[in-house]
Write a structure and sequence with these properties.
Blueprint lengths: L4 E10 L2 E11 L4 E5 L6 H8 L9 E9 L2 E2 L7 H7 E4 L11 H11 L6 H14 L3 H4 L12 H14 L4 E5 L7 H14 L4 E5 L3 H7 L2 E7 L6 E8 H6 L4 H7 L5
Parallel strand pairs: 2-10, 3-8, 3-9, 6-7, 7-8
Antiparallel strand pairs: 1-2, 1-4, 4-5, 9-10
The structure holds adenosine-5'-diphosphate (ADP).
Adenosine-5'-diphosphate binds next to helix 1.
Length: 259
């Protein structure tokens, strides 16, 4: 668990529109990497290309490489469903299956992977995943109740439990706190700090304070104008990006001069 992700000369398209150009990034295992930049610069597109969610959009494609511990995820014959099992995703709006119980929500991904596990093993997975997402104590007495009965912050932790139940190597998070209140946001941020001991985490956030709080590394993306591709301008230790960035564009952004 906790593998590296490397992109090489990665171009990402929607049809003929080049949305993100030439990204070379090495994401170290068991770290939190934050992706920041103004709206529309391609952060989410880049994130979704890492686990091949991007290509679910009709006409979408990539050029270049994405490697997981050196293994080319876009090589011919690689099953995108398997890639998405190894590289899980948590979305902006918590999206538990509303009528499904908390228990079944956690193991939903296992079922998709077609695993017939004995009940005792499923029980173990549910407890491990809910403990892993810091939700166990709050829900252990109501595992059979629908996931939709939880608060927004709890639902997001349930989605994280669902993502880690399949024991992925990498967790992608697309603005996971933007629909949450400040207390739930802090709970998710604390959780990221714990999860990075086991998983490699990549988070898109529009909140620079959050990036500064939770991440080890930060990538700053920018865009020159509408219709132009987004580019990775600078990628470095989070401290460096926020205190001594090398590029003026980065400095202007992190000091709040635009975006
Ligand atoms: P960010 O996450 O930084 O706000 P996005 O990755 O959402 O940026 O968008 C990058 C560019 O790709 C934008 O120009 C956006 O309009 C375009 N884009 C995003 N999703 C789609 C899509 N499904 N189809 C076509 N273009 C898209």
């Amino acid at each position: 668990m906790g593998k590296s992700v490397e992109t090489k000369d990665l171009n990402i398209f929607y049809g003929s529109f080049l949305a993100v150009e030439d990204v070379n990034m090495t994401i170290k295992p068991k770290t939190v990497t934050a992706l920041i930049g103004p709206s529309g610069c391609g952060k989410s597109t880049f994130l979704r290309s890492i686990n091949r969610m991007h290509e679910v959009v009709p006409g979408a494609s990539v050029e270049g490489k994405v490697e997981l511990d050196g293994e080319d995820l876009y090589a011919p014959g690689v099953d995108p469903v398997g890639v998405r099992r190894q590289i899980g995703m948590v979305f902006q709006r918590p999206n538990p299956f509303p009528t499904m119980s908390i228990y079944d929500n956690v193991i939903a991904g296992l079922k998709l992977n077609n695993k017939k596990a004995p009940k005792s093993e499923l029980d173990e997975t549910v407890e491990r995943s809910l403990r892993g997402s810091n939700l166990w104590n709050e829900v252990k007495d109501r595992l059979d109740k629908p996931g939709s009965g939880l608060s927004g912050g709890q639902q997001q932790r349930l989605c994280i439990a669902r993502a880690i139940a399949v024991q992925p190597d990498v967790l992608l998070m697309d603005e996971p706190c933007s629909a949450l209140d400040p207390i739930s946001t802090l709970a998710i941020e604390d959780l990221m700090n714990e999860l990075k001991h086991e998983y490699t985490i990549v988070i898109v956030t529009h909140n620079m304070q959050q990036a500064a709080r939770v991440s080890d590394m930060t990538g700053f993306f920018n865009i020159e104008g509408t219709g132009k591709p987004g580019k990775l301008i600078e990628f470095d230790d989070t401290k460096t990006i926020f205190s001594q960035p090398k590029e003026k564009e980065t400095e202007d952004y992190v000091s709040g001069r635009f975006g």
